[in-house]
Write a structure and sequence with these properties.
Blueprint lengths: L3 E9 L3 E4 H5 L6 H8 L3 E4 L6 H16 L8 E5 L10 H9 L6 E4 L5 H15 L5 E8 L11 H4 L4 E10 L6 E9 L7 E2 L13 H6 L5 E2 L1 H22 L9 E4 L4 H11 L6 E2 L2 H4 L6 H12 L7 E8 L3 E8 L1
Parallel strand pairs: 4-5, 4-6, 11-12, 11-13
Antiparallel strand pairs: 1-7, 2-3, 6-7, 8-14, 9-10, 13-14
Length: 331
């Protein structure tokens, strides 16, 4: 079976830039407070009426352009998001409609921050088995509309943001290129450490005035616990996926990690003993865009020349679930 390789990447972020000083007008915070705790300087938020599918479509068009393919060449869509435009159906079918393509399959992956890595694993299986030849993998989020923009919610609202990244994957034409291995995990014992409780089908009705008054529709995070687990699980996964592909960190050209918090990234770099040129961070400018962080960073690295043909890279993520995982790729 042929390996799966990346044919094109693309990103899209809203044009609305929100700085830390902007947030200080909404809540009791400062630029210094946010930078010290997260490393974030600014982030992007959608404008009224702008949707996740809008961002996904723009990123998809850039990925198709890089791949030199038309939308009609796509055989299937894997759409990773924790913030769909509607409760049902998922965003995948809305993207399929917006692309103007035929009745190709479109599935949504709800694995939050790990969404792009998990989605890529699905696409890889489809390509390797020959079920579909060219698969579009999207990570897209609109988090800003689900944040509590007050001092009470600042520990979460200063971190999360909006954006989309996309990749077109297909069969590799060389045996020494493509996705080498995956390492995927979950630990539901910590599910409530980073979650959105309501609306949910376990409640009757699914959303109530009591839930809204209690703020249960907002993303809730135990930041200390997320940090404590993330700085252990992601390095473990990076080493595991490199080992599964017959490599070590010494062989690694670039680690493209989920942009959760710059302090997490810095500790992960120290744990893995990586040089500055072996890592890439852009959370300073985009914030945490959940399933979109990796494909956004990946596209920036490809277009800037940080990733070139033959380079060994690892994608790694950790987040809500807890879910985490990595992919090793020879570009």
């Amino acid at each position: 079976m042929p390996r799966t390789r990346f044919l094109g990447t693309g990103l899209a972020v809203p044009d609305r830039v929100v700085t830390n000083d902007d947030l200080s007008q909404m809540m009791d915070t400062t630029d210094e407070w946010i930078r010290t705790r997260t490393g974030i300087q600014e982030r992007r938020w959608v404008r009224e009426g702008e949707t996740g599918v809008d961002l996904a479509l723009a990123a998809t068009r850039r990925a198709l352009e890089m791949a030199d393919l038309s939308a009609s060449a796509i055989d299937a869509i894997v759409y990773a998001t924790s913030t769909p435009d509607h409760f049902a159906p998922g965003n995948g079918v809305f993207l399929q409609r917006a692309m103007g393509v035929g009745t190709i399959p479109a599935i949504d992956i709800r694995t939050q921050c790990s969404g792009f890595v998990y989605g890529l694993s699905v696409a890889d299986a489809w390509v390797r088995t020959g079920q579909y030849r060219r698969v579009l993998v999207v990570g897209a989020e609109v988090q800003s509309t689900g944040m509590l923009m007050t001092t009470e919610g600042r520990n979460v609202s200063v971190i999360f943001a909006d954006g989309a990244g996309a990749a077109v994957v297909g069969p590799a034409d060389r045996e020494d290129r493509g996705i080498l291995a995956f390492d995927l995990h979950s630990e539901g014992a910590h599910a409530e450490k980073l979650w959105v409780d309501s609306p949910g089908s376990m409640y009757h009705p699914r959303v109530s005035s009591e839930h809204i008054e209690a703020g249960r529709q907002y993303l809730d995070m135990d930041g200390k616990e997320v940090f404590r687990h993330a700085v252990v699980r992601m390095p473990e996964s990076v080493r595991a996926v490199l080992g599964a592909s017959g490599h070590t960190t010494a062989d690694l050209k670039l680690l493209v990690a989920h942009q959760a918090n710059l302090r997490i990234a810095e500790m992960m770099q120290r744990t893995l003993c990586l040089r500055d040129d072996q890592i890439y961070n852009n959370i300073m400018f985009y914030g945490n865009t959940t399933a979109a962080t990796i494909p956004i960073a990946l596209d920036e690295c490809v277009r800037s020349g940080r990733i070139e043909e033959g380079d060994l890279i690892v994608l790694t993520a950790f987040g809500s679930g807890f879910l985490w995982g990595s992919a090793a790729v020879v570009w």
